[in-house]
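Entry 14. Ran structure prediction on the chain below.
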Amino acid sequence: MLLAAVLALAGCTGDDGKPAAGPSRASGTQSAPTPAPTSALDADPAKAPRDEAAARTLIDEVIADPALFGPEAVEATPYESDPGRWSVLGDDCVWHREPLPDGVLATLTRYFEVPPAAGKGAARLVAVVTVHRTAGEADWENAGMLEEMLRCPEQQLGAGERLTDLISSASYYGDSANGYADDVLRESGDYRGAGAAPAPYAWMQMRLGQVTVSVSVRAGRGYDMTEAQDIGREAGVRMLRRVVDALGRDGTGGKSGEAAAGAAGTGAQGKGAQGNGAEGNGR
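Output, structure tokens:
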């Protein structure tokens, strides 16, 4: 798994701060252990999208609508991005849009707002679903994003908009509390708009097979970081359940269904690698 390799290269440590120990050698003859599952999704190969049309159909089934964020959320303007392009973090740590690479079948970004109310400012929400040609290419995307997390502690979104003081973490399936997604990437920090005070910013991306889903939250005045993280996590997990329903074997709902249901309530904070962050395919 590429994400696990990047975590190792990043110098992950055990809970005591020392390098994590490898498996010990046992004497004598032992039977081979049963291989651990490598994916959280019990996928039905016949349901896997193999062309752009099938990928767009899946995205329509999975991607968030305002109701998924709660009764206060509304569509922003614009509501959807150009589906032929996605966001890329440049070597200069500035985000820009580029045409989709060959390894991506389809992607879509949607934008939402929670209007000011009860002493809180407006919150800006972004949901993204991307379908890759293969699970390996989706894994490669997440591994590359993890490297970006370590490279760009501060990122430029647009004119006068920045993400600063970014802290990130990553976990793969079976690591810590992650029993619901093949990979999970998270980041949090401050969003700084032109002339505005810093506001909590949180992002989470999860992968199941060839599909990644992500949510970012730029909270307004009166929100704290925990609230911003909860909004993103709960919406992301709900989209992940839709992936399970769409691609899992009939009668099983995929292995991740039950675990994903608990992820929203537990916080699902894998240990992963701690570092500086990057956001996903939508800001």
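The helical segments are 2-9, 52-62, 66-69, 135-151, 225-247, 256-266. Will compare against last week's run tomorrow.
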